[in-house]
Amino acid sequence: MSLLINPFAACSSTVKRWVHSHKDPFYRLKKTTFSPEFLTQFQPYFDTHLNHSLTALDQERRHTLKRMIIQTFCIFPFILGWAWMFYHPTSFAGLNIQHPELLNLIGTMSLLVGLGFIWSPVVRFKIKTKERIIPPILHYFDPSFVYQCQSPFKSRDLTPFGILPLHDISKYEDYISGHFKQTFIELTECTLQKKIVEYRNRKQHVRHVTLFHGLFVVLEMNKPFNGKTVILRDEGAIGNLFQNRMSGLQKVSLEDPRFEKQFEVISSDQIEARYLLTPSFMERLLELSNTFSHKLQCSFLNNQILLMIPCQGNLFETTTLFKSLSFEATIHPLLKELEVILGIVDTLKLNEKTRI
């Protein structure tokens, strides 16, 4: 409807989504192809561990889609009837109903139950597909990897690192943990939102602003430390001063001008911060930041490094009911996402025990 009323606004929205998607490294890299050598190596593993599951799930997808269409046609007349009664209150006049607002409430609740009845098989199929497809792909990289659709991470676990924005609502999903090249890694997809209450025309309006959507990646460091060092995007002199005062940490001056231009480093221990941020490690962080469109932030605490990586769309999505499950549509995007994430270990060289 909005396309007919304001085609320029719709076109502008489409262009904005296109621009944001092309700024997203996950989007860009998912569009690249694997080398013939990799495909030759992966093909036997795919045939043994994934092909049968993919075929069975695709048959179930068609059955679920057919069921959803039938249920939608069954409930559609009720939706039309409820909408007519809601938008035409005079329809109640001939029924002699004393409390039409109560009937509206009952109709709304029934509608929500009906929509939930239609959508619940879709949600269950989506979860089942993730649980059947993602673990075997992870095991191709290392058999120690574990996948959970519901993430055990909570904001209270990550808040001490000092890089989470103040938020009211958090949603964590798609948790992965395991060892890759002698480095323990945990990651989860997360959305953080702030609740904004506004008053217009003497009425309260509540909206939710997304502060962050992307990945939290926790990696074990290969050398011990006791303090806390935070690496934030450089927000200018005033913004950096505010961050330092809020955190109670001190600014750390480093010798790399490129690193200083992009990041603001604050720490509880100046000596330890320089012990962690050697010239070679700063170079690797800059390389990693370039991969993620210069939006990377991280923190060192409790012998771990937490990486905060924003992205535009949802990660680890395996299927849609309207597209067949195949290597190109299902496996390829997941492999590319994991290639980007696990590449963090290669870039930072955390598996090297001699130097950082």
Please provide a written account of the structure:
The protein starts with a helix and ends in an 8-residue tail after the last helix. It has helices at residues 2-5, 7-23, 25-30, 36-49, 51-87, 100-141, 155-158, 236-247, 257-262, 270-276, 279-291, 327-348; strands spanning 146-150, 169-180, 183-200, 203-220, 229-233, 250-251, 263-267, 297-301, 304-310. A hairpin with a 2-residue loop joins β3 (183-200) and β4. α5 packs antiparallel against α6 and α6 (100-141) crosses α12 (327-348). It has 356 residues and is α+β, with helices and mostly antiparallel strands.
The tally of strands reads: 9
Order of helices and strands: HHHHHHEHEEEEHEHEHHEEH
Kindly estimate the percentage of residues that lie in beta strands according to DSSP: 15-25%
Number of continuous helical runs? 12
Low-confidence stretches: 1-22, 237-242
Largest sheet: 9 strands, antiparallel
Major sheet: order of its strands? 1-2-3-4-9-8-5-7-6
Q: Helicity range of the residues? A: 40-55%
